Structures are given as structure tokens and as C-alpha cells.
Amino acid sequence: KRKTAIVTGASRGIGKAIAQKLAKENFNVIIFGRNEKKLKAVKNNLVKFGVSSEYYSGDVSDEKFVNQSVADIIKKYKNIDLLINNAGVAIFELFTESTLENFKTQIDANLIGVYNFSKAVINGMIKKQSGSIINIVSQAGKSGFAYGSTYAATKHAVMGLSKSLMLEVRKHNIKVMTVCPGSTETEMIENSPIHKNIKQVLKPNDVAEIVYAAIKLPQRALVSDLEIRPNNP
User: Fold this and answer.
1) Where are the alpha helices (DSSP H) in 47-148?
2) Domain topology for 4-228
3) 151 an active-site residue?
4) 57-66, pLDDT tens digit by residue?
5) Taking the CA of residue 199 as centre, how many other CA atoms within 13 Å lie in the half-sphere pointing to its CB?
6) Is the pLDDT reported for residue 143 higher than 90?
7) Which candidate in 56, 147, 151, 212 is catalytic?
8) Cβ atoms within 10 A of the Cβ of 205, count?
């Protein structure tokens, strides 16, 4: 039986690469993002693998939108076997020049989105006593860096949520994992003041491969936290 996955932030970068990898490995893949044109293009690519795919365009911090979308997916596909929380926003600025508005924008996308989707799928996973949630975090979830105080704060919060949820639901055979990539060639890094050596950073496909490796582990094995870094930055 083909499994069903949700991937957020899937219109580009890491989310798009993960969605493509899952479709290639025979998952039905439901994608979320904000750019409908890009989402449609990704979806049209995914169905070429012979799987079912749909897209939802909206704000991951909108609880009503998330709950209704997930309810629609469950109605059609019965179960959600895998949730990849990848949607995120990074605003790089000195703390002294930061604004509460920019901080809240990052909290909404990076933390509230993870909360909303995890909350929407978790009861179904508990009911069937299986499922996996993988949160794409970042090295910023483990350490701070200049120009990244507000971004790192949101990612540290996701690490705390993930580890706590993992301890609550592992007894139901549900895995909650975090993947913390180092610098990866995405639009986010192009806007970053931190890393300009684009040629030597990770590719989105590298992250997709490590995510799939974590998914494929036997049920008895849980990788609670994975770090993947550029080999020679």
C-alpha cells in the first residue's frame, strides 16, 4: 500500500527536493507553500512518478487553513504516514536593527507552522499507532550566529518542541525527528550575510537523501536528531 506524505515549503529548495525524492520512492505527496504557480509546477512533476499529488497554497500559521486542508487530505487518503515540516523564513539582520514585526513573521512560519501541522496530524497517527514527523530545522537550531538572533531563536524553539513531542509519542510507535542541515544552496542562503561560497555548500538533494534514509530505518530504530554539513566549506 502506497504511503501518503505531507511536505510544507515544497515550492522550491529543500522542500521541493524532498517531495521529489518521496514521489520517486512511491509516496503520494501532498505539498504546501505560498507560491501557487511554483506549487502547481512541482505537483505536475511529482505525478510523472505515477503517484498521486495535490497542492495547497496558503499560510502555515493559519490554524483554520491547516486543519481544513489536513481534514481534506485524510478524507481522501485515509492516513497521513509522514509529515515533513520544512516551511521557513529567515530574516537576517543585526539584533539592534531587528523589528518585532520581522521576529513575528519568522515565529509564524518557523514555529507556529510546525505546531499547526503536527497538531493536525498527530491524533490520526496515535489512532493507527504509526507515523513519522520530520522537522527540518537548521544548524541555527543548535547555535547562534551574528545577524541571526531572531531566526536562531525560532529554530531553537522548534528543537525544543520536537524533542518534547518525541518523548510524548514514541510509545505510540510514532517517530519525531529533526534534521539540521548546514549551509545549503537555496534562495535563503543567497540572502544570507554568512556564507558566500555557494559552490561548496550542500545541495537540496543531499538533504532529501538523508531525510529518506531516516524514514527507511526499521520501526525499532529512531534517529532523533540528524546533522548534515558541507564537507569542505
Assistant:
1) 63-77, 100-107, 113-128
2) Rossmann fold (3.40.50)
3) yes
4) 999 999 999 9
5) 0
6) no
7) 151
8) 15
